[in-house]
Amino acid sequence: MPRIVVEISESTEASLNALMRELGRDNEYASHGPLDVAGLAAMLLQDAALVIDRPGSWEGAKMADLLTSHGYRL
Question: Are 67 and 47 in contact (CB under 8 A)?
Fold first, then answer.
C-alpha cells in the first residue's frame, strides 16, 4: 500500500486534534469507524478519488464542489 507523508502547520495539527476530540473515538455509526487524523486523511483521499471513480456519488460530487470552491477546474 502506498505511503503518503504530509506536513502540516502546528496550528493545523492543534485544530485537527481538537476536531478529533470533538468527534470522539468510538462513534459506532460512522462509516469509517473511530477516526484519528491519519484516518481522516485517508477518508478524504478516498473521497477525492471518487470524483473520478464515482462522480455521481454524494462523496464524489461534494469533493468536486470542495475542489471547485478552492479554484480548481474539473
Answer: no
Query: CA angle at residue 40 from 14 to 36, to 5 degrees?
Result: 60
36 contacts: CB under 8 Å, gap ≥ 6 = 20, 25
Residues 31, 39 contacting (CB under 8 angstroms): no
How many helices (H) and strands (E) the chain has is answered by 3, 0
Structure confidence by residue, pLDDT tens digits, 3-60: 999 999 999 999 999 998 888 766 667 777 778 889 899 999 999 999 999 999 999 9
Interatomic CA distance for residues 7 and 58, integer angstroms: 28
